[in-house]
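Onboarding guide, step 5: your first structure request.
Type a short instruction followed by the sequence, for example:

Predict the 3D structure of this protein.
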Amino acid sequence: MRTGTPTSAASSAFPHRRHRLTTWLIAGITASAVGLVHVPQAQAQTQATGEPGARPAVTAAYDVATVTVPRWATGGRFGGGTIYYPTTGGPYGAIAVSPGYTGTQSSMAWYGPALAAEGFVVFTIDTNSIFDQPASRGTQLLAALDYLTGNSSVRDRVDASRLGVMGHSMGGGGTLEAAKTRPSLKAAIPLTGWNLDKTWREVRTPTLVIGAENDSIAPVATHSEPFYRNLPASLDKAYLELNNADHFAPNRSNPTIAKYTTAWLKFFLDNDTGYRSTLCPGPSPDARIEEYRSTCPF
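The system replies with structure tokens like these:
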């Protein structure tokens, strides 16, 4: 919700710089023991953006394989899930992704091939119960990362020092819970997050809060905005509000979410400073973005 003035003294709105956004590949993947998704090289162009040092949203294309983790293999720590990973190179930064209340990993499936094609290992999880609350989802996100780095068949492809969390709705609230619990995480992205706790001054993880203007389930005025405002003023953080979007916008392929989640993960997980100009100064309001504020410079 645009107020005209950032609500944190350390935050500011910045002039918009337009970036060329290469369309993400959204691949439908049927759960299997191992699968392969090909990302066309046409999506791997590193075209000039008109901004020195800037990167487009897709800078490299990897073939992406999948591994299904059954519920029984997790020891009850989370509900299983699907790991998406680049088939060559590594080790890579990794991120665990939680669905929201009553949701399953299928609601977050598009992030798997999209982020893995960018050079991340992505673990979209099911929770133990579709009714799990944010604190439980945060614990399960961390358990999924521990499984990924310690027990999974792709653990050698993961850099355990570069881990992040992301989630939708109560999974977004769980993302903040996980970041509070484990300050060594390098990136957190709550997507239209829901949590009764609005104070997150313990968080030390760079956090991108994404809200939606027309969210009636987790209204930005009572969720995403206070989340952002109550994160430490000294933290590397940003708030992006999707224009004319609802609570379930993160469950659908969205080029704005794609662009800024990629930039956040590339910058904070991969230390790729070429993405700084995407985040700082960041966009000004337009047809897609209602508001952006941050604690730039990062």
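Each response can be followed by summary notes, for example: The mean pLDDT is 85.
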